[in-house]
Amino acid sequence: MEEIDTSSTKKRGFLIKVRKKRKLTQKQVAEYLNIHTSTYANIERGDRNPSLEIALLLSDFFGVDIRLLKR
Predict the structure, then answer these.
(1) pTM to 2 decimal places
(2) Residue 4 lies in a domain
(3) What is the pLDDT of residues 9-61, one digit of tens each?
(4) Any domain includes 2
(5) Cβ-contact 33, 57 below 8 angstroms
């Protein structure tokens, strides 16, 4: 599990960093989550908090502790 700073700016940067490190597009992550690309983009930018269900999926997908994705 990767450790991250839980401030929204650091969290936002983490989601972008881990997605790009895995050479994934926002569209690919959104498809895995079964949500619109714009919804995932809003989560990634910190404009929207993920639901518990989406946070669990992101936690599993990126291999991070769920507590780091919920605010």
Answers:
(1) 0.78
(2) no
(3) 566 678 998 999 999 999 999 999 999 999 999 999 989 988 999 999 999 99
(4) no
(5) yes
- Cα distances from 68 to residues 12, 15, 24, 46, 60, in angstroms, run 11, 11, 20, 13, 12
Domain that holds residue 56: 24-63
Residue 19: inside a domain: no
Count: domains in the chain: 1
Q: Who contacts 62 (Cβ-Cβ below 8 Å, separation ≥6)?
A: 2, 15, 18, 19
18 inside domain: no
